[in-house]
Amino acid sequence: MSVMHLSEHEREELETREQRALGFWLYLMGDAVIFALLFATYAIMIPGTAGGPTGKQLFNLNNAALETALLLVSSLTFGFASLSVQAGNRKAVLGWLGVTFVLGAGFIFLELREFAGLIAQGAGPDRSGFLSAFFTLVGTHGVHVSMGLLWIVILGAQVAVKGLTAPVASRLFRLGLFWHFLDIAWVGIFSIVYLPGLL
Amino acid sequence: MALLAGACDLRRAAVLDPKGPVALAERDLLFDAFSVMMIVIVPVIILTLWFAWRYRASNTNAQYAPAWANSAKIDAVVWLIPAAIVIALGVLLWRSTYKLDPYRPLEAAGAPLEVQVVAQDWKWLFIYPEQGIAVVNQLAFPAGRPVSLRITSDTVMNSFYVPQLAGQIYAMAGMQTRLQLLADQPGKFVGRNSQYSGGGYSDQHFEVVSLSAGDFDAWVAKAKQAPGRLDATTYPAQAAKSRAVPITYYSVVEPDLYNRIIDKYRHAGHAHTPSQGQGAGAPARR
Amino acid sequence: MFGKLTIEALPLYSAIAAGGAAVTVGGALLVAIVLTWLKAWKYLWTDWLTSVDHKRIGVMYIVLALIMLLRGFVDAIMMRAQQATALDAGGYLPPEHFDQIFSSHGTIMIFFMAMPFMTGLINLIMPLQIGTRDVAFPWLNAVSLWLSAAGAGLVMVSLVIGKFSTAGWTGYPPYSGIDYNPGVGVDYWIWAILISGVGSTMSGINFIVTILKRRAPGMTLMRMTPFTWTALCASVLMAFAFPAITVACGLLALDRLFGMHFFTNAHGGNMMNYANLFWIWGHPEVYILILPAFGIFSEVVATFSKKRLFGYESLVYATAAIAILSFTVWLHHFFTMGSSANVNAFFGVTTMVIAVPTGVKVFNWLLTMYRGRIDFHPSMMWSIGFMVTFVIGGMTGVLLAIPPADFLMHNTTFLVAHFHNMIIPGVLFGYLAGYMFWFPKAFGFELNRGWGLASFWCWLIGFYLAFMPLYLLGLKGMPRRMETYNDPTWQPYLMVAAAGAVVVLFGIASMVMQLYVSIRDRRLTADRTGDPFDGRTLEWSTSSPPPPYNFAVIPTVSDREPFLVAKKDGTAYQRPASYTPISIPSNTPAGVVLGIFAFVLGFAIIWHIWWLVAVSAIVMFTTVITRSSDDHAEFTLSAGEVKRIEDERFRELGRRA
Questions:
Q1: Torsion-angle region of residue A50: left (phi > 0), alpha (psi -120 to 50) or beta?
Q2: Which domain holds residue A115?
Q3: 3-state SS track over chain A
Q4: A4 domain-assigned
Q5: Of C227 and B5, more confident
Q6: What whole-number distance in Å separates Cα of residue C549 and Cα of residue C78?
């Protein structure tokens, strides 16, 4: 479909959508800068344990692996939701969004449980510079995932009420970018924070 | 008259009137770079004023070329002149940065005098490990003998600054930085903290004195007569916040005091080994 | 209920502080009374505060900047007065007050004067120059504005309730940490910057998308105006450098709020990481501010030399090179932290390399004047004053880029003089040139030339008087930020510097007079053509002020100076055969509401009023969700209405002819 054959209104809508996509990509790149700096800060602060526990002593790889699995699968289920948007299948979109939400919520539950456990054994973020950096890096990602969950709920409601209109579909597209971006950030966290404990 | 007085005053300006080889080399660098840049700065200023005057709208005699906007030749010159200057200055910069690395011992005769420096709120503590003495707000040493400083802070970040002898370097808690200096002749100089550190910052200056060898020995002997002693029990009172503190001597210093001041923050904090680089880009080294 | 906030927070600790608070409160009350008396609240709300029109947002940004310029200047002249009289513990300010003043001066001038001024000028002009009807995200644009205003509001409120930071505009820990600074001052600083920083990041993204996606047909990248190019490069820096200060201030806030140990002395903290994070933002920030000013000089010099800009391509490549290199030099702000000679030498060389493209630009402006016909409009005078003065600052900057020389000069008033030498003649003169150049475009009448020239000469002479002595004092070894000193030979220099500040005060007074006289005489100097200076680019092709839709018909571009070409070809001012309806984004209170609650949120965090934090966060979320779920955020102007507005415009043009 070439732009030439579109009506004025359709062309404007397409342009708007393209601009929003570019704007959102730029936002994600800025967010990536934040994560990059938090990763760098974490790396700098690994030795700053202040006589307290090190990552090796604290981190449970099984929990992190389970979190990884939940988040990766949720990316897949979001992919199915996106396909259903293209197919125009409203019910399937809602269903897949629901599954994605449950997986994401499970991830947040596991993360909060891990945080609570660490704080209970005296390894909270105020224990050492190292733990401050750990909680902040992982917690920032967790806050992003929570925002994503809220966004899923809002767009789910919009799909249910308004249907798969062009603006709603365009918003779902950007939510998808966001959700997959969080996956990539998590893979970084898993490899830099949790995996080295194994080695 | 005022100009003349000003010029005389500036000849004695701390940075322009160095009294040791380190500050002298740093100042000469300043002069060299300044001279090289004048090659382009002066013509630009003159041309700007001249063009502005010559091509003023009322001067209809001047040529007017409204469409002239490109010249490959001029473009090349315009890129090459600044580039050439920057290459020249870059070479100067690279060499001098290695030569004047404050961690590098001075190539001068004689073993350096070791002094440990602690920035405190709002004063400077100088510990002489070989002599076993300490003094607040006065740094004395023999002229002609290199002085090797190890610097830390027992409070916020400070900057140890002696413009006529050595320039400056930050003092940071739990870490150590280094500075080397040498005074050619006996004399008195001013040292300061140049990094804002709170209410007493303005008064946080100290006296720097280079002495003849005999006078330095007498100075040490005098310090050894002082009643004050500095150890784990008396240190907290000495380090407590105080302003405009007069020069104070301590005849006896606990040998390990300086390292304890650093380790206080490391054991509660850092597990770093001191020699390990810590910052992204800015490691403080032994 | 009120967290840490008690009656003690009122600034009754000194008469001067209480006076400052009284002036702030009195000024706000006076504005409120005047607005009520003029019955202007409704107009203000519907036509301005809720507007999403890029031109009005631009104007509001500039108003914010000018107000904050006054506040920042009051700080400056108070500091100069203190230091001029402070020999041997003289002076009139106690240290804890002097320290707040130098901290708020820097914070305000960078974040709440220069940033809004720049963002305002880009907002006002860039969409007109690329021939579009608005920025890509008009509502987001309003949010950015109101977040900046919220940050500025926090700084102003710290005058009345509590104290401001004493940690300088860079807020270095551990001094700014909770152990050494338990009050609310640093928190005011942190939250003012965090909130306005989010706004700046979003502005950056908004401008990038606007410039890349909304240019008029035919306007290739290499046909964009130099100002648009510099706006693009500055926006890229805004989008990718501001996250760094968000991280730096965010981590400092975590240290202070939750007892974390990112930058503390003990417990594994690492203050050097802060310096790196801060300056990874801080150096690009210098170029965020100065690149658009370079763009303005390029336009002004070409227009008032009545000549095409020399070496456009060189200028564009130089701009892009500066933007990229600006991310590679941050460590030169702390050569004295003890890095190895390798690291220092590397960052010293990258810093010098930036001088090359900057030097190229100066030559380009010089050669644009060559064989021109120069009209000494105030904007041109700001440009000439800039070129002569800026090279001096560039020279001292290269001196400071040599690490061993920096060991001598760092943290002295030489450094203070250097960066003021870049930011006053470089940044501020550029913005003021832009202000006097584009004012008629925004309001439809010109600014008075005489008072503009008076302002220029006062600023220029005042600048030299105020800062040349500081260069010399730096050579005499005077550190910055001294509240008192004991060296009597410093005092004469500080007195000259104070006299310079007074001359600058006359410059500011001339600006106020200029505004007054120009508004009074607005009928005499009305700009009926929309093109008072024989302009060369698209912003001059529409009316002054432009209609809400900017262009009734989007222009097609075939040259770098499309409007000049059109005037030569006789294709300018042509009426189209017919008009089409135009859709325009609707005004919304969502932006200003977000700004107000961002302010409340910041205030509540600063004073630990947790319930209010929750309330304002919920209101902000609800506002964002409601507005972003709205599918019909625009209205349509019918072809008939467009025709009516355009007919009026052509009648004006005809009357003039």
A1: left
A2: 28-198
A3: CCHHHCCHHHHHHHHHHHHHHHHHHHHHHHHHHHHHHHHHHHHHHCCCCCCCCCHHHHCCHHHHHHHHHHHHHHHHHHHHHHHHHHHCCHHHHHHHHHHHHHHHHHHHHHHHHHHHHHHHCCCCCCCCHHHHHHHHHHHHHHHHHHHHHHHHHHHHHHHHHHCCCHHHHHHHHHHHHHHHHHHHHHHHHHHHHHHHHCC
A4: no
A5: C227
A6: 45
Nearest-Cα residue of chain B relative to residue C343: B281
In the numeric block, which tokens belong to residue B66?
């409204």
Question: Each residue of C76-105: pLDDT tens digit?
Answer: 999 999 999 999 988 999 888 999 999 999
Give C382-394 as a 3 state SS string.
HHHHHHHHHHHHH
Cis peptide before C174 (omega within 30 of 0): yes
Token representation of residue A69: 């699995």
CA A24 to chain centre: 14
A56 domain residue, yes or no: yes
Average predicted confidence (pLDDT) for chain C: 96
What's the pLDDT at A5?
64
Cα gap B105→C605, rounded to integer Å = 50
Question: Which chain C residue lies closest to A126 (C-alpha atoms)?
Answer: C260
Q: How far apart are alpha carbons B128 and B150 in whole angstroms?
A: 11
Counting every residue written for chain A, the total comes to 199
Tell me if A23 is assigned to some domain: no
CATH of residue A61: 1.20.120.80
Neighbours of B59 (CB within 10 A): 12
**Residue A19 within a domain:** no
* C240 vs A8, A29, A130: nearest CB: A29
| B168 inside 8 A of chain C by CB | yes
Q: Note the pLDDT of residue C657.
A: 59
Q: B180: closest CA among B166, B170, B193, B160? A: B166
Q: What is the largest CA-CA distance in chain C?
A: 78
Q: Whole-angstrom Cα distance, residue C560 to residue C226?
A: 9
pLDDT score recorded for residue A198: 65
Q: Which domains does chain B have, with CATH numbers?
A: 14-57+64-99 (1.10.287.90), 113-276 (2.60.40.420)
CA distance C260 to C267: 9
**By CA distance, what is A154's nearest residue in C?**
C625
Contacts of A53-60 spanning 24+ positions with Cβ under 8 A: A53/A123, A53/A127, A53/A131, A54/A130, A55/A130, A55/A134, A55/A193, A55/A196, A55/A197, A56/A196, A56/A197, A58/A118, A58/A123, A59/A193, A59/A194, A59/A197, A60/A114
Query: B153 to each of A122, B48, B131, B174, B274, how far by Cα in Å?
Result: 30, 49, 22, 7, 15
Q: Which of B268, B271, B280 sits opposite A47 (nearest CB)?
A: B271
Rounded distance, CA C129 to CA C122, Å? 10
- When divided into structural domains, chain A yields a total of 1
Count of residues making up chain C: 657
Interface confidence, given as ipTM, is 0.96
Residue C572 sits at φ, ψ, to 5 deg, of -75, 160
Which tokens hold the place of B246?
């007069």
Nearest to C620 by CA among C48, C63, C297, C143: C143
Averaged pLDDT, A194-199: 78
Q: Which residue has the tokens 């925004």?
A: C442
Judging contacts by C-beta atoms under 8 Å, the chain C residues touching residue B178 are 338
No. of helices (H) and no. of strands (E), chain B:
6, 12
In the DSSP assignment, the letter for residue C521 is T
3-state secondary structure of B114: strand
Check if C240 contacts A (Cβ < 8 Å): yes
Q: What is the pLDDT of residues C516-543, one digit of tens each?
A: 999 999 999 898 889 999 999 999 999 9
pLDDT band at B286 (very low <50, low <70, confident <90, very high): very low
The number of C-beta contacts closer than 8 angstroms across A and C is: 111
Whether residue B268 is predicted with pLDDT greater than 90 in this model: the reply is: no
